[in-house]
């Protein structure tokens, strides 16, 4: 019984962390402005400023996809599949390789 209660507490805490993390994503499009060229062409080398900006999403890589989607919704010309490759081109690990499930 104690083990079941502990498991419920752990699940609750994990869900709370996920909700808080999602709530902290501000979708600040300005953060990705240095990445405009890299978000339009997979052959474009991301600038140092772009890689630094993308690196700020390390703790919440899903927020990167959400911010890309927000930028598209705001009318920025972004090829989302290409934009999703920026972390790899910046040699950053732990990011999604596709933003198809972003909101």
TrEMBL record:
Please give the biological process terms from Gene Ontology that the record holds: systemic acquired resistance
**Which GO molecular function terms does the record list?**
fatty acid binding
Does the keyword Signal belong to this entry? yes
- Bifunctional inhibitor/plant lipid transfer protein/seed storage helical domain residues: 25-99
Q: Which UniProt keywords apply?
A: Signal
Gene3D superfamilies, per database record: Plant lipid-transfer and hydrophobic proteins
Which InterPro entries does the entry mention? Bifun_inhib/LTP/seed_sf, Bifunc_inhib/LTP/seed_store, DIR1-like
Q: Name one Pfam family in it.
A: LTP_2
Respond yes or no to whether keyword Transit peptide is given for this record: no
On the tree of life, the source organism's domain of life is Eukaryota
Tell me the first and last residues of the signal peptide.
Answer: 1-22
Protein name listed in UniProt:
Bifunctional inhibitor/plant lipid transfer protein/seed storage helical domain-containing protein
Q: Which organism is it from?
A: Selaginella moellendorffii (Spikemoss)
Taxonomic lineage of this organism? Eukaryota, Viridiplantae, Streptophyta, Embryophyta, Tracheophyta
């Amino acid at each position: 019984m104690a083990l079941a209660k502990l498991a419920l507490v752990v699940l609750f805490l994990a869900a709370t962390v996920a909700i808080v993390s999602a709530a902290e994503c501000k979708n600040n499009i300005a953060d990705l402005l240095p990445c405009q060229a890299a978000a339009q062409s997979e052959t474009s080398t991301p600038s140092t400023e772009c890689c630094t900006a993308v690196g700020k999403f390390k703790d919440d890589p899903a927020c990167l996809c959400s911010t890309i989607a927000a930028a598209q919704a705001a009318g920025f010309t972004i090829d989302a599949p290409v934009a999703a490759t920026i972390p790899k081109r910046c040699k950053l690990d732990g990011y999604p390789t596709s933003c198809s499930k972003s909101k």
